[in-house]
# Entry
Amino acid sequence: MLILGVNSDQADVSAALLADGQLVAAVEEERFSRVKHCTGFPTEAIRQCLAVAGIAGREVDRVAVCGNPRSHLLRRIGLTFVTRPAPAQALRRAGGAARDTSLERQLAHALATSTRALPPIHRIEHHPAHLASAFHVSPFEEAAICAADGIGDLVSTSLGHGRGDKLRVIGRRFSPHSLGLLYTSVTQYLGFRSHGDEYKVMGLAAFGEPNYVEELARVLKVRPDGRYWLDRSFFLPARELLAVPSSDGRPRPRRLFSPRLEQLLGPARQPKEPLAARHRDVARSLQVVFEEAALRVLRSLAARTGAPHLCVAGGCFMNSALNGRIEGETPFDRVFIQPAAGDSGTALGAAYWLWCQQLGRRREFVMRHAYTGTAHGQPAIQAAIGSRREALHGFDVTTHSSVAELCNAVAAAIAGGNVVGWFQGRMEWGSRALGNRSVLADPRDAAMRDLINARIKRRETFRPFAPSMLESSMADFFHDGGADPFMLKVRQVRPEKRARIPAVVHVDGSSRPHTVTTDANPRFFELLQAFERVSGVPVLLNTSLNENEPIVESPEQALDCFLRTGMDLAVLGDTVIRRPTAVHQARQHIEPRQ
Ligand SMILES: [Fe+2]
# Structure
């Protein structure tokens, strides 16, 4: 049975395809539309899932769509009275039927079929889809489950207990009482106004002091048992969506905080205003308050379920600083977070909710790696290089016949101070580049962080970079040496090791490692081994292959990113492209270290 999972309308639209309960493909629309966190309908993501599986749209047996406008109907009606939406919006809320007609048309278009020939469509509520995305692909037979975000189908936090093939929803908290709403509101207050900017605040928090915790405790009240409330006077009236879809696919965030928050914390920072100590302190205080509240929720869930393990999803669990504390500070001994823990993951979750919960089928798939996206073979790579022939004039282009030879050459170049664009195999699912669409550099050189921020990523200087490393070396570098194939948990680097990999250690001594095994990614594993041989460290600085845009999807996009930024080498499949200035830049660059 082929099940297509779809996340549409809200931000981070995406698609996933299951064949008899096995995940065949999962991709996010933003990689094709080239609009970050894009909204609308994931037409291209659906088509690419079909292409990966080698099937036609008419072969899909069922479609599971995240979001159920008929869920919590009484609350929806109440919300309409409270927020008094514009007539068009009220019509859209009330018009579940109209929405489904539009959905059918778009689905038929994506599947290249007619609306009459569509398979059955199942609407799956947002939070159950989050819960399913976490538990149903986890390695655990039994686990507690928590989903937390801004809002989805009116819910902001939901709790579940999974055992065997099924999960039960055992609790939920409705918006506006929402940890995600709090985090996003303060993110906006701090001048980060784009959808998905919360991770910038998390990075900034490491530079501040928790001087505003008392003030924020007036905004968020948390009981020891994990029940929490927001004081609504600090927020504008609650809405169903925190970001409004737009015709160009860019989510437009609503302003969420009220003037009262500025009375409490001082004037809001404007987007271009320099970051002051006060802003860093508010970021740190928010992170402290948020982490403590979430940990209380999880401790209470542990007591309630008695489950040994935990699965989490939802935008709040994209907060890797929080994630890194869970195993040490709650009774849960292991935590599973799949790589698209945010809303894009609900396409996966909707499909699994249908498969396991509604159709009663067996849960037999475990997500052990994130490489579920599109791939482009060597012929496509050669064609892309050919199409950029003029721009690549004077560049050295070498195609290696052996992976070992390729990895040795690239490892030597990185150890010599070159920055490498590394494009291989199937694209990653989720927001992290995990060694198939990555920019790689030497973590031993502290200057690399500033160099990549300024020359390649052109982004805020306070944001840290993360390491990829051999899983077997984790305990050498971190107190908590557990694996994380998805780079979603921040941990403390052993103090004696910090000077060995300074480019990937944050100002507070933390880092967010990605652990690599030969089973998950044999070529990247081999590169890490080759780099260890030449440098003595089994670690590479790894950041996403992009420049203020979604991560690249195709070899053409990878080449264009390479050409317009200051990367020294591009490695696409078996081919290494070296900029004429690469060696010269490398020599200049490594001189201070020698
Ligand atoms: Fe969500």
